[in-house]
């Protein structure tokens, strides 16, 4: 078998068509990108259905598509366990966060966190955690692009891969610079439709090959792999007590991190009302849930039709399960479509992260802290655009540097940091009257630093064969995900910082926030259509 | 870490806290039984339901980790209890979503809309509603 199944030229051509179509839409959509509301929040003009699709496009990263199909194909049930956490997490976003956040903020997570607390310190903390989470997530996506290039375009040498990473990064900068939130949203919507449609076609195809009998598919997967254990949990996480605890830690980070990811939160501002924010999450939950059911079929389908040996031997390893399955089913054309979907996925997720980080820097740091709220909307947008270019360049350089590194943990780390640094403060400021600035700062910085420190002293960084630095061993924390410790710690610090704080916050701001959050009074409506 | 210098009990630095648009109007609304009922209805739904969903999820994760033989019990052909319970997580997520939309449409949105309609003219918020 050649390095890449299928036809690299065809793969590039199909991706080129995607880029051309989205470019036209982005340029058309961006004609009235004048104010900060247009640039950061797409003029709040998207419907719940559109935004829900964009959320799905933002959330279903290459890791969830290629990673989960591959994980199920290789480690069976444990891969499925992973996707359940990604879905159930949306209940927290729907019930506790989406609407209240839409009603109390304007553009960024910092708007909500700083609503009734002291602006400057809380916004700086919110921007710090937004930038850290976005950076980890961004780096993982860009580094993943390198692996995809070798798999889908047959480019084996480092230089060629670096060029492709740079092209993907440059495209992303162009989309975000020109299109702002509107352009980013359309890229995400189109990508979500392509991804879910592609997965649906493959799912029906796989089921058709097994007489639409799921049990028969499972039998075929067991027959090909020769391992009945793929139908049960335990192949990956059930090895020792440590791996079991590690999975619990990961589960906690996934289920509490989603509702605190800055790029997910920012999407709620692109709709006109809290009711549309609710509809967005409902759409997102259905799309994401159905997609994960597809990945269950695709994962076992890849195990049955291709088998773990061929998957692991292909360039890209575990991540090649979905592309190989596409090739097996529909030949070079279906592979080309799935390859284009995978690139579109990276592009769309990276664009969403970049605009979030840029908005947080321009709005929270430049607009509110440096200019003390006196920056005009035009000035803020200008700073945001400059930040987009800087972040884009950092992402390209980081992606080229991290190419080939084991960076899968970065996404889990981003979830753990979001759940530790952001979620306690979001929940406390929405539901706990007494909460103070000191509680917020203790919780945010405590959650952020404990999550990062625990990762540094974990086996992810040192002390085992798969570590970043295998040669030395300073791993004193046994788990690869810090969530089990850092999330409860951040909740505790927020409570402790508050009850030991003699100072009271402004009760009027608390009352205003409560009334606004539940009724939507004065929430900014759509500005353009 | 985020410890701050000691200052008087009530912190009100005009340069650092955005002024409340109309504190009296918000206070008055917050004190009404209607608003109290809205807040209670909201919390009585979202807090217990979130807690139940998280409990159900962690029960599933713990069972997968510590009782894999329970997940291996066959249900239908080669489909075992683990796959059924995993899909049940998906189904309960969909069910909670649907239930919440019904609840919010029936019990939360009408009251929120009434309060909004009465409060916005008092606050001089135009229908376009641009907040500084």
List keywords for this structure.
heterodimer; A: 529 residues; mainly alpha; Sodium/glucose cotransporter; 19 helices; globular; B: 132 residues; two-stranded antiparallel sheet; 67% helix
Structure description:
The complex is a heterodimer of chains A (529) and B (132). By secondary structure, chain A is mainly α. Chain A has one domain (8-28, 47-404): Sodium/glucose cotransporter, CATH 1.20.1730. Chain A has 19 helices and no strands. In chain A, helix 7 runs antiparallel to helix 16 (408-431) and helix 14 (321-370) packs antiparallel against helix 15 (377-402). By secondary structure, chain B is mostly helical. Chain B has one domain (23-122). In chain B, strand 1 (74-76) and strand 2 (79-80) form a beta hairpin. In chain B, helix 2 (33-66) packs antiparallel against helix 4. The radius of gyration of chain B is 24 Å and the shape is elongated. The interface between A and B is large, with 79 and 79 residues.
Write the SSE topology.
The complex is a heterodimer of chains A (529) and B (132).
Chain A: H1 8-29, H2 36-41, H3 48-59, H4 62-75, H5 77-104, H6 109-113, H7 119-152, H8 158-209, H9 214-225, H10 241-257, H11 262-267, H12 274-305, H13 308-313, H14 321-370, H15 377-402, H16 408-431, H17 437-456, H18 483-499, H19 507-519
Chain B: H1 23-31, H2 33-66, H3 68-71, E1 74-76, E2 79-80, H4 81-122
Antiparallel strand pairs in B: 1-2
Helix pairs in contact in B: 2-4
């Amino acid at each position: 078998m050649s390095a890449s199944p299928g036809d690299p030229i065809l793969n590039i051509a199909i991706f080129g068509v995607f880029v051309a179509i989205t470019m036209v839409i982005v340029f058309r959509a961006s004609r009235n990108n004048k104010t900060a509301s247009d640039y950061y929040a797409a003029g709040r003009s998207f419907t719940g259905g559109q935004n829900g699709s964009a959320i799905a496009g933002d959330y279903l990263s290459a890791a969830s598509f290629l990673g989960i199909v591959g994980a199920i194909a290789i480690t069976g049930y444990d891969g499925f366990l992973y996707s359940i956490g990604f879905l159930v997490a949306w209940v927290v976003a729907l019930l506790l966060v989406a609407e209240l956040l839409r009603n109390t903020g304007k553009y960024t997570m910092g708007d909500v966190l700083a609503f009734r607390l002291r602006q400057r310190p809380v916004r700086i903390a919110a921007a710090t955690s937004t930038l850290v989470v976005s950076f980890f997530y961004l780096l993982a996506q860009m580094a993943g692009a390198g692996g995809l290039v070798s798999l889908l375009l047959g480019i084996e040498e480092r230089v060629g891969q670096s060029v492709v990473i740079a092209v993907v990064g440059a495209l992303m900068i162009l989309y975000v610079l020109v299109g702002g939130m509107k352009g980013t949203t359309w890229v995400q919507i189109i990508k979500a439709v392509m991804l879910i449609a592609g997965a649906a076609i493959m799912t029906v195809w796989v089921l058709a090959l097994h007489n639409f009998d799921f049990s028969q598919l499972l039998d075929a997967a067991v027959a090909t792999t020769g391992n009945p254990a793929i139908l049960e949990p335990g192949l990956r996480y059930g090895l020792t007590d440590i791996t079991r605890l590690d999975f619990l830690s990961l589960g906690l980070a996934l289920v509490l991190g989603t509702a605190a990811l800055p790029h997910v939160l920012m999407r709620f501002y692109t709709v006109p009302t809290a009711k549309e924010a609710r509809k967005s999450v409902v759409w997102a939950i259905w799309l994401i849930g159905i997609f994960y059911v597809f990945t269950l079929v695709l994962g076992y389908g890849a195990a049955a039709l291709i088998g773990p040996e061929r998957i692991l031997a292909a360039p890209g390893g575990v991540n090649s399960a979905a592309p190989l399955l596409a090739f097996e089913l529909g030949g070079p054309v279906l592979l080309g479509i799935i390859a284009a979907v995978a690139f579109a996925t990276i592009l769309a997720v990276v664009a969403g992260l970049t605009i979030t980080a840029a908005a947080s820097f321009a709005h929270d740091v430049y607009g509110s802290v440096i200019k003390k709220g006196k920056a005009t909307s035009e000035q803020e947008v200008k700073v945001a655009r400059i930040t987009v270019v800087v972040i884009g360049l950092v992402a390209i350089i980081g992606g080229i540097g991290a190419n080939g590194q084991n960076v899968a943990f970065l996404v889990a780390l981003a979830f753990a940091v979001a759940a530790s640094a952001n979620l306690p403060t979001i929940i406390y400021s929405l539901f706990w009257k007494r909460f103070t600035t000191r509680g917020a700062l203790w919780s945010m910085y405590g959650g952020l630093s404990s999550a990062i420190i625990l990762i540094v002293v974990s086996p992810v960084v040192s002390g085992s064969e798969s570590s970043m630095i295998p040669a030395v061993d300073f791993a004193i924390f046994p788990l690869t995900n810090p969530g089990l410790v850092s999330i409860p710690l951040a909740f505790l610090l927020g409570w402790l910082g508050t009850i030991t704080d003699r100072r009271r916050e402004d009760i009027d701001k608390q009352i205003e926030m409560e009334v606004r959050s539940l009724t939507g009074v004065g929430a900014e409506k759509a500005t353009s259509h | 870490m985020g410890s701050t210098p000691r200052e008087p009990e009530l912190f009100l630095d005009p340069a650092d806290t955005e002024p409340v648009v109309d504190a009296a109007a918000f206070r008055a609304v917050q004190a009404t039984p209607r608003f109290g009922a809205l807040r209670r209805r909201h919390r009585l739904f979202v807090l217990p339901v979130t807690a139940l969903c998280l409990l159900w999820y962690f029960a599933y994760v713990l069972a997968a980790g510590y009782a894999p033989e329970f997940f291996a019990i066959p249900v239908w052909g080669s489909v075992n209890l683990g796959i059924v319970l995993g899909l049940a997580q998906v189904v309960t997520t969909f069910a909670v979503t649907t239930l919440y939309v019904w609840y919010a449409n029936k019990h939360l949105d009408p009251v929120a809309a009434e309060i909004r309609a009465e409060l916005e003219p008092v606050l001089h918020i135009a229908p376009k509603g641009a907040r500084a």
